[in-house]
Fold this protein.
Amino acid sequence: MQALFGNLLLLQWQQVVMWAIGGLLIYLAIVKDMEPTLLLPIGFGTILVNLPLSGAVTQVIDGVTETGPLSVLFDAGISNELFPLLLFVGIGAMIDFTPLLSNPKLMLFGAAAQFGIFFTLCMAFLLGFDIHDAASIAIIGAADGPTSIFVANYFNSQYIGPIVVVAYSYMALVPIIQPPVIRLITTKEERKIRMAYADREVSKLTKILFPICITVIAGLVAPRSVALIGFLMFGNLIRECGVLDNLSDTAQKVLANLITLFLGITVASKMQAEAFLNRETLMILLLGLVAFVFDTVGGVLVAKLYNLVSRQKINPMIGAAGISAFPMSARVIHKMGLEEDPQNFLLMHAAGVNVSGQIASVIAGGMILTLFA
């Protein structure tokens, strides 16, 4: 009984606030169905690590170091980038690059939608963040959780907890963030533009060669992206080769779900009150929003610019799908197209840009590592 009340006396208001944040993440996961596979374990882990003298994380008590399981998992799976890379195998196995391969010019808009990363990097640096922390914060704009974790951990950023939570939270908020931004910078006539589907068939050989070629090209352009892009493309090769269907199904379902589960609760080890509740976390929250908004703007504006020089017009809304939040962003664009014109089907075009954004975001992460390592 004395030990119980002793622990209550050690409880700080900051820890109670973190319980509330953890509860909010659990609420969003269960009630709002916002990235539940990640936000729920992060939310529960946040409560776990903010209990007084929590045995979940490594701590020193009376001069004795007590090893916590979440700290062990962090060292085993995140500090060496293992979890993000394994997750990329599962993501790669989920992606169908057929819409992109049938219309390769869509890659242009996926690349353009990475503008927010570099814009936010400059803003974060000007606001006083160390260049490595600024780079880690900027990669939130990739709308790619594993890349955010990989880059932040590579630079040993002290803000890895807030960065991951902000990245995945904004990914879940794509249906709320993107539509008003798109409407602000497009006209009703532009949003009604219909796009014909390409008749070009994509051969099985092309689908097999694509992940291999992308890995080689990315390795030559941004060598530090090889691990990220390589694992992503390896997962896709498993999908497309046609002889490893069981492994492809395992990667898409069992591997991806298991790693996401461990990733979420392990990242929560960096969600302790003293590291999370500060002015910098609020700034990261705002900068993450800036990154998402300017990624969307960059993709749409380049699509509008393309229409100025091309006789075959495209719907500029599809440029916003380049933020890599796959497949959520493509669905948002498709829904907006149907709202303007019930016969305007943009899903496959938006999906092509969406998967190109997945590749572009990983390459952008590799470029960030190359430039600032």
About this structure: The first strand starts at residue 59 and ends at 61. The first helix runs from residue 2 to 10. The beta strands are 59-61, 64-66.
